[in-house]
Amino acid sequence: MTVGDTVVLTAKAVEFCEGDAMTAISADVDGSDVHEIRENHQLLSVRAAALLRLAVVGLMAGAMVLGTGMHEWFAQSVLLVIYGAGAIWVAVLAFRKGTSAAHPTTQTVVAVVDVTAICIFELLSDGGYTPLAVMVLLALLVVLEVSARRAAAILAVSAVAFTAVVVFDPVMLPDLGWAKTIFVCALFAFLCCTVLAVVATQQRHLGEIERLSASRRALLADTMTAFDDERRQLSESLHDGPLQLVMAARFDISEAAKASTDDRLHRALSSLREVIGRMREATFLLHPAVLDQAGLAEAAQKLASITENRSGIDISAEVDYPVRSSVDPLVFAVMRELVSNVERHSGAAQARIELRAVDRVCRLDVVDDGVGISPETLSRRLAEGHIGIASHRTRVEAAGGRMTFIPTAVGTHVRVELPLLQ
């Protein structure tokens, strides 16, 4: 293999490592995104139910005014005030950041309060169709339940309560007779069964989404592992083959240069030293052995040093990362992409890499004093086919983390946070 062939191979290796820096995520990554999907679904359901509950309070007030006598209003008003205050509190809790409103225990308590309040409202009336219609709202509140078991329990209690109220109502049974009364109870039971079927279907759909998300995670992990294996093989081939040949050629030319005054030998020797340096950089960028041997902290320091020597940008690395994690290869890939962008696009004079482990989270910050980058610029580069940042953001989010562009007066500040996995 000639020196020219070696340089071409080195260039292809550098192009490969800069073009699509995918890294392996171990297959035992936890289902953090699946858990997040379920939590988000539960939170949205709780918030929607909280708003519906406020509407139910309003409808109960309307039923009191239109369907009951004034002598019943005091007791019903006290109930509505208490239930309304509870509904407002649940709504505030549901929309508060970091809420615990979606916790199963909380939802069970809220469901019991709903059933109790509406049943008491009916018992406080002297009977009639309007207060009874409020009980139908019990079934509608259950539509947004995320637990089929809890929904079944609530609906069963609601059906029993509705039947008891209808049977013992002083107006309905004498007015309708047993046949129509049984038919009304059957209609309510059918409504409860329909609602339960809807809840069960929603639960199955959520389970299917979780399975698809888990499959996507597994596929992504397999893809990243394949790319990592390919990079590792290319790095080893470059190191064990062309690099050794070039080093042998450098040794031969160095020996010949000692006995010759020909400047061409010295220029060739200088070029070979530069090629060897570039090839070592390429093997590091393809798959840094230091990442396996010394860890991510040392790899970050070496990446800063290599980029500084190559680009002339003053790059510092502030590292407080005394751990090892299965996300380290992904963090290094993102770091490499961000530092490469600083070198190629920022026009910066200074840059800083910060790597820390904070509360079981790996936090990577890459900051420069260059021209900065706007969302419009990101969109334009993506349209032009530059998918580096976008693809890495997807991988970070797939691993349960996030990539954030933090506004700064000058330059660009990108923060990447990933949960640390053993």
UniProtKB/TrEMBL annotation:
GO biological process: phosphorelay signal transduction system
UniProt cross-references to Gene3D superfamilies, sorted A to Z: Histidine kinase-like ATPase, C-terminal domain (3.30.565.10)
Pfam families named in the record: HATPase_c
Key words, A-Z: Cell membrane, Kinase, Membrane, Transferase, Transmembrane, Transmembrane helix, Two-component regulatory system
A GO-annotated cellular component: plasma membrane
UniProt membrane topology term: Multi-pass membrane protein
Xref: InterPro entries: HATPase_C_sf, HATPase_dom, Sensor_HK_TwoCompSys
Subcellular location: Cell membrane
Cross-referenced CDD domains: HATPase_UhpB-NarQ-NarX-like
Domain Histidine kinase/HSP90-like ATPase: 326-422
Transmembrane segments: 48-67, 73-95, 107-123, 129-146, 153-172, 178-201
GO molecular function: kinase activity
PANTHER family, A to Z: NITRATE/NITRITE SENSOR PROTEIN NARX-RELATED, SENSOR HISTIDINE KINASE NARS
Protein name listed in UniProt: Histidine kinase/HSP90-like ATPase domain-containing protein
Source species: Mycolicibacterium elephantis DSM 44368
